[in-house]
Amino acid sequence: MSLVVVPTGTANIASVLAGLRRLGADPSLASSVDDVDGADRVVIPGVGSFGAAMETLDRAGLREAVRERINAGRSTLAVCVGMQLLAPVSEETDGAPGLGLVGEAVKRFPETVRVPQLGWNEVTADPSSRFLTDGWAYFANSYRFESVAPGWTAAFSDHGGEFVAAMERGEVLACQFHPELSGEWGSLVLAKWLGRAA
Question: Model-level pTM greater than 0.90?
Answer without folding.
Answer: yes
